[in-house]
Design a protein that fits this description.
The structure is a single chain. The chain is mainly α. Helices cover 52% and strands 7% of the residues. The strands form six sheets. It has a three-stranded antiparallel beta sheet with strand order 3-4-5. Helix 5 runs parallel beside helix 20 and helix 17 packs across helix 18. It starts with 24 loop residues before the first helix and ends in an 8-residue tail after the last strand. The structure holds 1-deoxymannojirimycin (DMJ). 1-deoxymannojirimycin binds next to helix 20.
Amino acid sequence: MSSRSLPYSTQDLHYDNAKFRHRSPLKVITQSLVTSRIRYSCGSCSTGKFLMLFMLVGLTYLIAIKSSNGSTISILSNGSVVEKQQYVKEGVGRLRKIWRKPPRLPPQLPPDEAKNISSSLEKQKMFWISRQEKVKDAFIHAWSGYRKYAMGYDELMPLSRRGIDGLGGLGATVIDSLDTAIIMGADDIISEAVTWIDKQLRERIEKKGQVNLFETTIRVLGGLLSAYHLSGDTGTTSDNGRSELFLEIAKNLADRLLSAFTSSPTEIPFSDVILHDYSAHAAPDGLSSTSEASTLQLEFNYLSKISGDAKYGSTAMKVLEHFRTLPKVEGLVPIYINPHSGQFHGDNIRLGSRGDSYYEYLIKVWIQGRNIDNQLNYLREMYEQAMKGLRNLLVRKSIPKGLVFVGELPYGSKGHFSPKMDHLVCFLPGTLALGATKGITKKKAMAQNLLTPDDLENLKLAEDLAKTCFEMYAVTSTGLAPEIAYFHIEGDFEEGLDGGNKSSDYINDIIIRHNDRHNLLRPETVESLFVLHRITGDPKYREWGWQIFEAFEKYTKVDSGGYTSLDDVTRIPPSKRDKMETFFLGETLKYLYLLFGEDDVLPLDKYVFNTEAHPLPIFESKDAA
Ligand code: DMJ
């Protein structure tokens, strides 16, 4: 969307904040007198008088600059001249003070202008709130399809209007959606979900068979824990006992999931758990995904904190402590690990599937616990080393237009570089930005001098990659990203595999193979847009998010209820897949809603979102044992 179609001009936003700085009444009166006199006398002065004034001012300025330069040189060459330098500094300070009269602040803010600006800000806020409401409508529409045709199943098949248990049968959509409904204030959905959890979930957990440790932790356990916190975190009856209910079920579930850790001969948990008999086993090929084994700790740590039982967190943290001891390639790790040997399997390195959230949790687990536990610093170090390795080995630019992307090393650092990037990698811009400022705004971090050169590089990379992720949407005919993109690099181009949007500047940079043209309603790009908007305040991230949301509305909405995955995003109309993934409600719509909303809702220096977008509070020093 062009900014012309907005009801306000984005230029309105770039006013000088100095206009609004607080001034004492005395200052206001003095400033007004000084400036009105200057305005008056300048209006009537002759050219000669004006030139005299100009020369005087120029002379004063030259003296100031000279003194300032001299002091710098002295300080660099000889430490003993500090006193002189201090004196010069004071002199310059005094001159600068005089030079600054009349004050930089404008004498008066005409009441009309002040009114205009504040009403334009108000308009802008209302404008985004109206877009936020559209996201809430989409959430209600998605839930209505699920509720009508698939209540209690893991996922909705919106075209065939039935449910399917693709995640072990714990009603994953109900739990993944609950905190989104709480954040949006969708009261009917909250009460339907809570009633279902109360009546069905205990029994399901006791009777169901095999579930995947990682998927169940991030979606079901994570969803229950976040709902626990957002319902009041009180454990009292003030929330009608809801938080107690969520905590009790979370513990019951986690006790069973713990068997994946205790059955394994090493610190690396097995990937599959049989819920009803508290047992676990490895996947058929005997391997666990690196990302799956290392993406459990935010949830288990928080459960320990609220239950008072340390076993959950301490068990899950052993996995990361074990990863610390393993050999890596500049901090980067292969995507498989063997729970029998505790060693990596193969050389394949990527930040897409099976690798992604290993890197995400290194920094997020540190952020979650750093205020109360300085033993966690090794996680930050592992993260920083990995991001250096990433910049060194995996980041390249496409041709002809120079999009920055993250490729893969399918045979390790000694093998060839593959210019392949999964949509899943689009979580990375958000994580990089969060890792750089630790959740505060870039402006604040810069003002407080908190950013290291590495942080600045990571932040820049975050912004470049967010653009690439957005262009992966904009380059297709539907405006929706494919599951996987390849990037055109020197000596590596595949003819005739563009995204279909011939007016995109990047039509020759992004290659989309036939098998990779599906879209599963994934959240990673809008997740990063949300984080980057919070951290940089740049309005373009909201515009990009809106453009993506409109494409979801246009091509994935199913009239009878729900949204569907697509088979081919390069064609219009796109062929469809008949599945609404739980993360569309748990993540995609939540991040879009938060992107368009106020910055003080779930602030990123107080909350850390698990990899399924369930917000959990960052531990504060008062939480220390
Ligand atoms: C989600 O389940 C999580 O975000 C996970 O970390 C990766 N994949 C999906 C969404 O795409």
